[in-house]
Amino acid sequence: MSSSPVASSSVSLTRFLIESERAGHIEPDLRLLIEVVARACKSISIAVGKGALGGVLGDAGGGEASINIQGEAQKKLDVLSNEILLEANAWGGHLAALASEEMDHAVRIPDHYPRGRYLLLFDPLDGSSNIDVNISVGTIFSVLCCPDCIEGPTDADFLQPGTSQVAAGYCTYGPSTMLVLTVGHGTHAFTLDREIGSFMLTTRNMRIPEETKEFAVNMSNQRFWEAPMQAYVGDLLAGKDGPRGKDFNMRWVASMVADVHRILTRGGIFAYPLDSKCASKGGKLRLMYEANPMSLLVEQAGGAASTGRQRMLEVQPTGLHQRVPVFLGSRNEVEAAERYHLEHDTPQRERAYEGSAVNVA
Ligand code: AHG
Ligand code: MN
Ligand code: MN
Description:
Elements (H helix, E strand, L loop, with lengths): L12 H10 L5 H23 L25 H15 L4 E6 L6 E2 L9 E9 L10 E9 L21 E7 L3 E6 L4 E7 L4 E6 L10 E3 L10 H12 L10 E2 L5 H11 L2 E4 L12 E2 H14 L3 E3 L16 E2 L1 E4 L1 H15 L2 H8 L6
Parallel strand pairs: 1-3, 9-10, 9-11
Antiparallel strand pairs: 1-2, 3-4, 4-5, 5-6, 6-7, 7-8, 11-15, 12-14, 13-15
Helix pairs in contact: 1-2, 2-3, 4-7
The protein binds 2,5-anhydro-1,6-di-O-phosphono-D-glucitol and manganese (II) ion (2 copies).
């Protein structure tokens, strides 16, 4: 029998979610929420697919730069994707509030609609620098639960660690449009069947190989990295002749969604480490709607995700737009990167004691 991942192609996202509900993995409102996000992603996919013909390329703001809370210039598709997700999620009754890369603060569901107990965070369009050059971009989302904040949700209600996520996913707008989803019971990939307009399950239970020979990092930042990162990548580049004893390949799309999708599919490590350009902000990527959802997807596929010094999902957030260093992917490689940081942070004398039979307690 074929082991092709397409073997389960007759399972639509709708059927998968209903079966997840029957299995007790999700509640009806979470099922509705995911369906609504998936529908919004289909609309974004259509807009992305039109490219120049849809008038969606280029900068937002009509001549004057439009700058978001991150201090980054917005593209037309950043703004459009944000609006599509907001509009789709406003009226269903499943959400208390939404937060986005493109909005300064969380937005409450308007009073004239019922409010539910879920909180939705998203990066509406990830990989903005690739929009105008026809390279894969995506949408990332994270779902939290807040039964006590239905009446008056605020930014503070979103500040829950990644372990509290009840669902996370991304949609990649590439040669095919794919939705990759977890509700805490494995990571599953769905491919958009454009003829019937439905996401179909194409890989159940994605698994990331523990070992890898591929890394993804923006090498142009090398001279700005911390010492442990310099040492780690130096050893990867040394290949067979270095301490790692094998040659590594490198890939960098500069769309986190596309890089993570490759890693979920065939392994690898993705790193956006701390560097002296972004150190004052804590890193480049955002914890709540980039690092946390991707980390849950990766862990649910057997991989690991870390800041280099701590499990990503255990970071206690302090701000909606907080940034963090990111290392995620094949388990053994993420653990190797962590060791370089640990060894750098631990004074040499302490390390010598740990390695000897001397009891220093
Ligand atoms: P966004 O487009 O949502 O701002 O995110 C861009 C992120 C991420 O997708 C990618 O991995 C990284 O920025 C690329 O950074 P460089 O431009 O430094 O390569
Ligand atoms: Mn992003
Ligand atoms: Mn974005």
